């Protein structure tokens, strides 16, 4: 059996430091906010090269509250990728704003900057690119379009902790970046967690008020806020793991490199990396027209794999009111039919990698036989 991702491995690797961090919080009596959250925020902001980081309860809240901090509401339009995790869309809907999906570049899976301007209307307020699968979106043209039309840019960085675009870490290209620390992410907590990084002091200040019931001074409420706080226990855990993130990302890069070499020429479409991108390989996603047969062969051989994502947001029942039929966003739909994520994680060893490669190669060969 080769698992898709080993979630226990990071704990075993850092057991002593993590146990100490947890004991420190438990014995301190600080269970909401406090020094661990402050210090994690400072360390994560520094890591991202951003002036501010504001911890929140999860990645969806990070997106939602960042949009609120940008005053997004009913009547506003937000441009999102047609192919993303549903959270990107839900954050916009939660503000009462209107979703305007744009199709991806077929090679990078990220929003196609060449298609954005046609989707802009006088109501457009925010561009919301996603750094999908850990690969940075093409930020320069996106930022140029935003400047030209007076729009804000919020990035969904939930899959891209540590990724670099033209040498600069994701975290401060646009007006704000939303992060998730869901356990399976490259930087994952032992429960839920999220944050927003930004260089804009006003966005950071609004985030701090919004996450805390709309209050700056206890029992004085300026706005109708939310309860969305990063737990100090999770902050302490994240501080330990942040120190390991670059090493863990380097291991992912090394695995992806070997996949790229050994899976070439077996009929799969492998990930494409533009020369300006340094992805962190949150997922290693291949494409095959007979994806389901390929996945079944892997399952039969005891290799875990997942589909990110099997139903694009516009075809979800949750968005039935959006009124999209099949065919509305053909690239997103093709991806949903053809993508397959192979095992990937910092704990994956050479023997597991070789096992996956061997099984994928023989499965691909068997499928192609007429
Ligand atoms: C995981 C994820 C989110 C949501 O994060 P949660 O912490 O689970 O709320 C948002 N966007 C993308 C692209 C994600 O992968």
List the helices and strands and how they pair.
Blueprint: H1 9-13, H2 15-28, H3 35-48, E1 52-56, H4 59-69, E2 77-81, H5 86-94, E3 98-102, E4 124-127, H6 139-149, E5 152-156, E6 164-165, E7 168-169, E8 176-180, E9 194-198, H7 201-210, E10 215-217, E11 220-221, H8 232-242, H9 245-262, E12 277-278, E13 284-287, H10 291-300, H11 330-338, E14 339-342, H12 350-368
Parallel strand pairs: 2-3, 2-4, 4-5, 5-8
Antiparallel strand pairs: 1-9, 6-7, 6-12, 8-9, 10-11, 13-14
Helix pairs in contact: 2-8, 3-8, 4-5, 4-7, 10-12
Secondary-structure content class: alpha/beta
* Bound ligand species: pyridoxal-5'-phosphate
On the 0-100 scale, what is the average pLDDT?
97
Global outline: globular
- From the alpha carbons, calculate the radius of gyration and give it in angstroms: 21 Å
Helix content: 25-40%
Q: Beta fraction of the residues? A: 5-15%
Q: Could you give the count of β-strands? A: 14
How would you concisely characterize the structure shown here?
By secondary structure, this protein is of the alpha/beta class.
Describe the model.
- This protein has helices at residues 9-13, 15-28, 35-48, 59-69, 86-94, 139-149, 201-210, 232-242, 245-262, 291-300, 330-338, 350-368, and strands at 52-56, 77-81, 98-102, 124-127, 152-156, 164-165, 168-169, 176-180, 194-198, 215-217, 220-221, 277-278, 284-287, 339-342.
- It has 370 residues and is α/β, with parallel strands linked by helices.
- It has a seven-stranded mixed beta sheet, with helices on both faces.
- Helix 2 (15-28) runs antiparallel to helix 8 (232-242), helix 4 (59-69) packs parallel to helix 5 and helix 4 (59-69) crosses helix 7.
- The protein starts with 8 loop residues before the first helix and ends with a helix.
- The structure holds pyridoxal-5'-phosphate (PLP).
- Pyridoxal-5'-phosphate binds at residues 58-60, 84-85, 87-88, 130, 156, 158-159, 180, 182, 192, 194.
């Amino acid at each position: 059996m080769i698992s898709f991702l080993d979630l226990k491995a990071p704990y075993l690797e850092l057991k002593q430091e993590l146990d100490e961090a947890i004991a420190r919080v438990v014995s301190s009596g600080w269970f909401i906010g406090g020094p661990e959250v402050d210090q994690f925020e400072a360390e994560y902001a520094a890591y991202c090269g951003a002036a501010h980081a504001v911890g929140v309860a999860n990645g969806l809240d990070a997106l939602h509250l960042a949009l609120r901090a940008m005053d997004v509401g009913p009547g506003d339009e937000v441009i999102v990728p047609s192919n993303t995790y549903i959270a990107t869309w839900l954050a916009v809907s939660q503000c009462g704003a209107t979703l305007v999906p744009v199709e991806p570049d077929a090679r990078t899976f990220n929003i196609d900057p060449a298609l954005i301007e046609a989707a802009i209307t006088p109501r457009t307020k925010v561009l919301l690119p996603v750094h999908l699968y850990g690969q940075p979106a093409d930020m320069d043209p996106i930022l140029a379009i935003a400047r030209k039309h007076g729009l804000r840019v919020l990035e969904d960085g939930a899959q891209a902790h540590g990724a670099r675009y033209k040498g600069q870490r994701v975290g401060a290209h646009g007006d704000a970046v939303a992060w998730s620390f869901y356990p399976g992410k490259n930087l994952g907590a032992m429960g839920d967690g999220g944050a927003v990084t930004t260089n804009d002091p006003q966005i950071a200040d609004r985030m701090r008020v919004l996450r805390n019931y709309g209050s700056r001074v206890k029992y004085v409420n300026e706005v109708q806020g939310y309860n969305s706080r990063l737990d100090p226990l999770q902050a302490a855990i994240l501080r330990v793991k942040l120190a390991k993130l670059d090493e863990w990302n380097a291991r992912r890069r090394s695995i992806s490199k070997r996949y790229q070499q050994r899976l070439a020429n077996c009929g799969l479409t492998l990930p494409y990396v533009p020369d300006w991108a340094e992805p962190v390989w949150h997922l290693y996603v291949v494409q095959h027209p007979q994806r389901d047969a390929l996945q079944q062969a892997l399952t039969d051989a005891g290799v875990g794999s997942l589909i990110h994502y099997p139903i694009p947001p516009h075809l979800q029942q949750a968005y039935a009111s959006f009124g999209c039929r099949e065919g509305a966003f053909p690239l997103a739909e093709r991806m949903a039919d053809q993508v397959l994520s192979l095992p990937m994680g910092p704990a994956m060893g050479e023997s597991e990698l070789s096992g996956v490669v061997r099984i994928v190669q023989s499965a691909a060969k068997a499928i192609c036989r007429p």
